[in-house]
Amino acid sequence: MSLKYRRIGVAMTGSYCTFSNAFAEIEHLVKEGADVQIILSEHVQETDSRFGTAAEFQIKAAELTGHHPWTSIVEAETIGPKALFDVLIILPCTGNTMAKLANGITDGPVTMAAKAHLRNERPLVLSLASNDALGMNLKNIGTLLNTKHIYLVPFGQDSPVKKPNSMIAHTELLLQTVEAALEERQIQPLVISPFV
Question: pTM of the prediction?
Answer without folding.
Answer: 0.96
